[in-house]
Structure formats: C-alpha cells, structure tokens
Amino acid sequence: MNNDNKLTDLKNYSLTEIQEYIKNLGDQPFRGKQIFNWIFENYADDFDELTNIPISLRDKLKDVAKLRSLKLLSKSSSSSTATVKYLLETDDGKKIESVIIPEKERRTLCISTQVGCPLDCKFCATGLMGYTRNLTVAEILDQYLITSKEVLPNTITNIVFMGMGEPLLNYAATEKVLKILLQDLGNKIGRTRITVSTAGIPKKIIELADSGLRVKLALSLHSCFDEIRDKIMPINLKYNLQENIDALKHYSRKTKTKIMFEYTMLKGINDREEDLDALKKLCSQLPSKVNIIPFNSIAHMVNGGFSSTLEPTPFDEVKRFYERLISKDIFVALRNTQGDDIAAACGQLAIKEN
User: Is 89 tagged catalytic?
Assistant: First the structure.
C-alpha cells in the first residue's frame, strides 16, 4: 500500500473526471458513476463499502486512491442553540473547523476554504490565526460529507462559505466544489441555498459572476467608508470599496440575485448616524440586503494590538440601528448569535496552537 498522502483522493474529481480515472485503470466508465454515488449519496469513506463494485476494482483502488482527506477529531455542541462545531484534521496535520447551525426550517453548514486566513481582518479570530495554505477540493467537500454523515443524512439544507479563509483567494477549488454540488449532484442543494462570502476580491467576483453558477454572494462590508475599512480590513488597501461595488453590480446584473452586505457592529466605529446614511446610499445602488451581526468575542485569539480595543455595540443600540435601517426602506436582517459559548459564532473560528 502506498503512503496515504500519495494516494489520489477521488473527491478532487468531478463526476466526468472520476469516470475517466476509472477508464484509465482499465475498467468501465459507468463504474465511476457508481463510485461517485457511493461517495455523495451514501457517504462512503472505505472502498469495502462499495458493494456493487467488483472486488478486483476495489483492491486496485485501495492501492492508488482514497475516499477521505479529513479526520474528525472532535465536536462541540452549544448548550443554548444546538450549534455544533467540528474540529477536523488534514492528512498533513493541519486543523480546520466547520459549523452546523440548526434553525426551524433549515440546517446550515458553515464551511472553510483555507487553513487560517491571510486577510487579517481585525474583528475576526481566523485572521488573527494567520494563514497556512488553501484547502483542496476534497478537503472542502469532506467537510460537507463528514458532517452530513454525522447528522441525519440529507438534512443539510444550506451551505455558506463563511468559515475559515477567503473563498475567492482559493477560487479554483471553490468554483469546482460549487460545480460538483450544483451540477454533478443535480441541485441536491440548490444554488439559492448556497452563499459564498468574500471580503472583496473584485476580479474574482466578476469571474464567479461569469461562471454561470449564480450562487448567492455576500460581501463582508462592515463599513461604507474606505478609511474605516482600511483600518479594520487591510484587504481594502488593495481593493477599495468602489472597485468591489462595481464588481458586485456586475454580479447582481449577471446572476439576477441580491447581494448580501454583512455588517458586524463595532462600538464607535460603524454604528454612527453617518453610517446609516452611507448604508442607505449604498443599498440604493443595487439589489441588496444588509445582514446585521453582533460582534462576537475574539478574546480566545487576541494578544494585544488594535483588535484588543474593539468592543461590541450594545445590543439595544444594535436593535436601534437595525430599526433605523428598516425605516429607510432597506431590506435588513438581524442575525442572532449562535454558538458563541463554543467559539463557533460568526468571526470566532480559529485554531490556537499550543
């Protein structure tokens, strides 16, 4: 048996690629479709589970391929919201986190695309963790498959690319995962139930718009003023707000979808009257929705610096801000914090190495 790290993970392949791979092994391509179904319909992670595949092909595959790139190390459950955080390990020993958020009519999986994040957003624990590498297609999909197998099968209704990392800086893998989920799986989870979140990479926003996938897109906005975004989101120094707004207008026109603006409330930074006026002006430019997010503690990762000075806007002021946006005829939602007791809420995902 070859070293596991040298084996081909079949989840890096689309359905067509798996069929071609099986053909190159000297077997019939229809076996590739059977294997694909075993992976995504039955969550198989061992070739011995593939009972309708000839033993000779299974034995051959054991020598050259694998069905799992992540190992589930542990899971933590919130006592107040039933949110579950999964700690997963890659074959090269890197650790990432995924979260399942249960709600009345949906179960949402928050998925990671990188080990850490290179963007250093000051209000985000993942940014304070630093960056190691991109995740592979298989490692991204494994989060979906492992968590799906852990909960009741086929009950994950929504996927948000809002976990660790910037999806559009791992664009090729993110796009391929989306194509497998939406095209190869026949809309098992429809495009309107998948959201990709970005801090703002204009060229990649345009590329995603032109891909034909038409998933929902969220911009981590957090301020309508460049001088504030420069301070709390260093990526804004490279790609300013107007560049991103122009790309978002293209995305909305091309996909005929609303843009979600994520807005984490930071005391004295983005909760002022001028911020309300700026949001009103921005939302008048394109179909959009503002998602108000209470600032969740990142004390488990903060070690001094500007991040340590950030404070949450008091909730009564958050609610007032939300109500004022409604009064300005802005489509807005106020997100409830879920999983903060296990550091699984928005902005809290991070691995702190000893």
Answer: no
4 pLDDT more than 80: no
Among candidate residues 41, 49, 97, 317, the one labeled active-site is 97
**Same structural domain, 135 and 243:** yes
> Over the stretch 266-323, which tens digit does the pLDDT of each residue have?
999 999 999 999 999 999 999 999 999 988 777 777 667 888 889 999 999 999 999 9
Q: How many domains are contained in the chain?
A: 2
Query: What was the pLDDT predicted at 80?
Result: 79
Active-site pick, 17, 20, 346, 353: 346
* Structure-token pair, residue 149: 């197998």
In this structure, is residue 349 part of a structural domain? no
For the question of residue 311 being annotated catalytic, the response is no
- pTM score, two decimals? 0.93
- Residue 267 belongs to a domain: yes
- Over residues 243-259, the pLDDT tens digits come to 999 999 999 999 999 99
Same domain flag for 78 and 201: yes
